What does this fold into?
Amino acid sequence: MSLVPLPSVLLLACAWLALGVIGLARARSLTLVAKVLFPAGAAIGLAVAAVALMAIASPPTETVLPLGLPDLPFHFRLDSLSAFFLAILGLVSAGVSTFAAGYLRKGEGTPPGLQCLYYHVFLASMALVLVADDAYAFMVMWETMALSSFFLVTSDHRIAEIRRAGYLYLLIAHIGALSILLCFGVLQGGTGDYTFANMRAQSLPPFWATIGFLLALLGFGAKAGILPLHVWLPEAHPAAPSPVSALMSAVMLKTAVYGLLRVTFDLLHAQVWWWGVLALAIGLATALFGVVFSAVQSDMKRLLAYSSIENIGFIVVGFGLTVTFQAYEMRSLAALALTATLYHCLNHAYFKSLLFLATGSVLHATKERALGKLGGLIHKMPWVAWLALVGALAIAGLPPLNGFVSEWLLLQAFLFTPGLPDGYLNMFIPVAAAAVALAAALSGYVMVKFYGVIFLGQPREERLTEAHDAGPWERVGLVWLAAGCVTLGVVPVQVISLIDHVTGPLVGRTLAETATGSWLLLAPIETDRASYSPLVVLLGIVVATFAVWFAVRRVYHGRVRRAPAWDCGFPLQTPRMQDTAEGFGMPVRHVFEPFFRMTRELPSPFDRAPRYRVIVEDHLWHWCYLPVARWVERLTAIVAVLQRGRISVYLTYSFVTLLLLLLFVR
It folds into this structure.
């Protein structure tokens, strides 16, 4: 019996919804939710990934379901693009759901069963967004995804700060949704038919095509967290439970990337070169902004949130390069840039979810999020520490892990841009490439700070000695994601062969048509120009490590004399002498000072317990959002004058309105 991919995806999404309903029926049963429903959700995620991987190389399939409003049924379609992002959703959700089975605790805000409902509705809505084939179904699923994630973000709704973060997220999400809805209104070309099939058949004038693209960039960019629409992301991620933060960063942000790719390369028939330049500039600004702010954070989840902004910037940079190459009909380079973009979507989903889950284990074990109160946890939490090291090395872009492959491919795309037929672009691109390299280098700096402050050195608080390692369910989830980081880094040729099924329909060329090399050697253009063999690099690392170990332990072990550490002449070393998160961030604060709005609290010479504090804030929040908030408050105050609560006043308003209408009618 053959498996039909699209009906299977719809059934699996319904299975996720069914798990949520079962959890709601037993809202207080932590055992049922944690030990049965979440593992079942992980199994469904694996099934979604399996169906999606089979569907990537298959022809598109479509179906229509008589749901929704009359004459507005839901249209669904599964093609290679939606299958690729479904595979990301399934693979990552399997690890996150397994971790969540051991992460859930009683007494943490929302009851377990209700949280199970929100969680699985969130997963199902993301899956249905990826297969929606009309504007109506897309927007229904998009808003369901936004609402379910809002309730997940505000799980611990008793804390005012978390409620504010949730409302800010919901506000930006609805601004983006309005822009997406207007985009679909433009793309349907005045026909009244909002199916994607009709939008594909339209041939919009350049002006309206540009309006549609800009609306899509605004709407999906708000969900992705590009500048200046990023303000919700550093607030929502720290507020949400760690499995939710992992899913939002790893998958939900990628649904925005999916929407942008769908509109630009599927629903719009032509691309304009300056669209790509605009996206490239926004992506560069987003990447630099994210990594610089990440470097100065002292909250581990907020640090990872800003790091997500940086990686979304990389993805938008790759998207901009793809649009630029496609506009000039340089299809081979467009395939290379799009391959780098999609590969980084997959990589970021793995290593960022791994790091968010690791911080969740640290938070449960220590009850602490502040970097300044952590340290030395590698001794108490070895499983979490070593697996988090895999994620930290991957996000830093070190070979042979997965982060290196996509960043290397992106830089290769930049290296071949001097062939662009525009002199100004040829001058701009090297500057952009240097900015990408700077952001990648700073990302490594941030990960040294993140990992070193949390896991290395001595505990900065006495209660850290009571920390415990992750439980069995949490370990399985972390191992799954860490294994993905290693696998995606070691076998990039095989992964790119799957991505080729996506790039071919979108840009008309695949990387396999221009790349040389073999299963062992990745060469995106020509072997003599650039090539990379991850297996050779991995073998070299293993051989070098073994040689050093053998030399130290076997050859020179008898000659080593052990003695107490000298500690620079001071034997009484304490945790206060270790590098702090603020100390790590100080050089970045000085070099990139114009990026920050800093407030310094200086102690008095007469203070018995002097304390120095630096508050780092976002200029864009004060320049863009606070003025708007003030105007809204003033407008609300004016409108509130009309609401007096007296029936006589309301009758007077009605009488005056009738008089004005009679006057205008005459």
